[in-house]
Amino acid sequence: MTDRKTELAANLARVEERIAAACAAAGRDRGEVTLIVVTKTYPASDVRILSELGVSDVAENRDQDAAPKAAACADLSLSWHFVGQLQTNKVRSVVGYTDVVQSIDRARLVSALSKEAVRAEREVGCLVQVALDAGASGRGERGGVAPAGIEELADLVAGSPGLRLDGLMTVAPLTGEYAGHERAAFERLMDLSTDLRRTHPAATMVSAGMSADLEQAVAAGATHVRVGTAVLGVRPRLG
Ligand SMILES: *Cc1c(COP(=O)(O)O)cnc(C)c1O
User: From ligand 1's centre to the CA of 224, what distance in Å?
Assistant: First the structure.
């Protein structure tokens, strides 16, 4: 193995151990939690290695970086997630390679995605991104919509051709009542998911937890964790 492959294999094994331990502690089956590796800022060669090491899902947050990477990895059988704030002028490109957009936060984005998904004859999975720190504006510092806005967006996604409502996503807030209380934040997300599934029973995905707080997310009931740093290393620049 190359040095990088050895390094990524060791990091992946450590993350896998953490997920398995968190599942065991919560009395959950390991199969209930999917690891998504966040490859933002890292090269296509790393994505290729991760695929060789058995990773099935990767995530990116900027179309400029993601589009060429996805093109370079088009021969791999990977699911691509988009987890960044998404401008409507990037939607056409993103729809070209993304299986699930996890950052649905406004109606205009839903209509743009629907239009491009239909044009590309693709079905795009959608998660409504929930901002647990949303202020009066109804929007969060790190993207997302306030809990009160979930239902409207979810209904819109569910009724839009080319789109599939898969569930909810959140990033643990750095401000507001949940700052420093990741477990409580993720439990709130689970409650919101329970509410959502009353009207949209198939929207079972709950995406929560990153390198620093994946245990809390698994304990709360997350179905997907998004891990970057713990697998790939500290990012060379903000991303
Ligand atoms: C970067 C990022 C992650 C991964 O964060 P790490 O701390 O590197 O594990 C997860 N989710 C989102 C939305 C991100 O932007």
Answer: 12
